[in-house]
Specification:
CATH topology of one domain: Rossmann fold
Protein name: SGNH hydrolase-type esterase domain-containing protein
Strand content: 5-15%
Shape: globular
InterPro entries: Ester_Hydrolysis_Enzymes, SGNH_hydro, SGNH_hydro_sf
Strand order of the largest sheet: 2-1-3-4-5
CATH architecture of one domain: 3-Layer(aba) Sandwich
Order of helices and strands: HHEHHEHHEHHEHEHHHH
GO molecular function: phosphatidylcholine lysophospholipase activity
Pfam family, one: Lipase_GDSL_2
Length: 278
Amino acid sequence: MNQLFTKKRIVITLSTLVLTGLSAAGTVGYLTFLRSPANPPADACADGRPKGSGPVVVAAGASMTQGTLGRDWVGDLREKPEFRGYEFINAGDNGNTSADLRGRVDSDIVACDPDAVTLLIGTNDVRDGVPLEEYRDNLGAIIDRIKDKTSARIALMSLPPLGEDLDSEINHKLRDYNAAIKETATRATVGYVPVNERFTEHLQDQDHRPTYDFSFTTAYLAATKYYLLGYSSDEVARDNGLELFVDHIHLSDRGGAMVTNLAAQWLSSTEGATKNEP
């Protein structure tokens, strides 16, 4: 009888542990990959331009902008005292390419009637091997649509390195996409925020950087350390031998601060947060 009772206790304990593990895994997956960012367009712009007299800023991009994995640099902009009264709308969407953003430009940017728009898009284009001309065409179409339908100021942000080994094959490939971003900004007469240049300046004199090694597993483990174990994003980065990224793509606290500061400089400049005249 005692032996049967002991076996039942073991089964119950193991089942509880399994269910707890599954629940924790599901929680991490939801917080990282499924939940919306803070103040997404679907909420903020459901009835058109958000109410209020302050400037409306839309930050559009993919997961690095969404900020549910790695540092939420858009949220950090929102907290800066100099932007009190601004409406920051996070139009980041995990996994997006430039084609994806082009497909939602009306619903997630134009619908908000913004005063300023930042565009940080292309990391997934590089990773997916999207042809450079297709990428360039998508960037141009996004800018043209925003210009045609709003009077917002626009800034293209260059893409951070992929991982911290600047001589890796993927970072050599990334250079062509960043050249396309800079050329597009010049041709379209829009702002340019030198994110890659700032990251590269920080990394270029440092040796022994780990090889680029992003995967879903790497991202999930980084998220687990952050959401379940209470690590800071900088601590997650250090665990992976990194400094500016938690998993070779998404931003650590230090990397996020760089992006925040660069975006803040553009917004605070003469042209950053004031609408074009019609």
